[in-house]
Amino acid sequence: MDTNKKWYAVYTRPRWEKKVADLLTRKHIENYCPLNKVVRQWADRKKLVLEPLFTSYVFVHATPQEHLAIRQTDGILNFVYWLGQPAVIRDEEIEAVKQFLDEYQNVSLEKINVNMKDRVRISSGPLIAQEGDVIEVRSKTVKVQLPSLGYAMIAEVEKTNVEVIPIASYTNNYFYNALFR
Predict the structure, then answer these.
(1) Residue 59 in contact with residue 21, Cβ under 8 Å?
(2) Which pTM was predicted?
(3) 25-58 confidence digits (pLDDT tens)
(4) How does 78-94 read in b/e, with b if 16+ C-beta sit within 10 Å?
(5) Which of 4, 39, 106, 161 makes an SS bond possible with 63, Cβ 3.0 to 4.6 Å?
(6) Contact residues for 93 (Cβ-Cβ < 8 A; gap 6+)
(7) Which H helix or E strand runs over 128?
(8) Rg over CA atoms, the chain
């Protein structure tokens, strides 16, 4: 595995996510277009369809040398930028999205602002060992924050499967310091 490769988000033309993923695959550029399993109702039937979870976004695992080839792909408008540089998405966040979509259907996204709340670790279930900030808890609904993407994924998680991490445990964390210092 190339250690220079990082995950980036690219912004696509509307409704081009699957096409862009296919074009990148043909160029031998590793990519990930998260697909949500959604049940759609028609007048005569119900059908399970795969829809892009993040509208107008595809993730690429690439080196800086591959950026030009990525930008030149039909349907890609540009990289998503953060502080003047293409935004790097942590491997753990991509894995969390993959695992989340493997375990759940009809996942919804909610655009969020990064807030500082209790820091938690999932102690069991599909997101085991994932850490994040609690945005809101209602009966069994827990919102899991993915800070570098600016979205929260919402899933039914038992409150008993969440443990609070004391603040001293994560204030020395690189990611915490990059976001909140």
Answers:
(1) no
(2) 0.66
(3) 999 999 999 998 888 888 899 988 899 999 999 9
(4) ebbeeeeebbebeeebb
(5) 4
(6) 7, 146, 148, 149
(7) none
(8) 18
Residue 35 tokens read as: 């697909």
Sequence-distant (≥ 6) Cβ neighbours of residue 146 within 8 angstroms = 93, 96, 97, 132, 152, 153
- CA–CA dist 3, 171 (Å, integer): 27
pLDDT in tens, 108-132: 876 653 334 566 666 666 566 666 6
Give buried/exposed letters for 137-153 (b at 16+ CB in 10 A, else e): eeeeebbbbbbbbbbbb
Contact 34, 101 (CB under 8 A): yes
- Domains of the chain are 6-89 (3.30.70.940), 92-180 (2.30.30.30)
Question: Per-residue DSSP letters for 105-119?
Answer: SS--EEE-------E
Which pair of structure tokens corresponds to residue 105?
A: 């259907």
What are the phi and psi torsion angles at 142 (to 5°)?
Answer: -120, 130
Nearest to 153 by CA among 102, 78, 84, 86: 102
Q: Is 30 left (phi over 0), alpha (psi -120 to 50) or beta?
A: beta
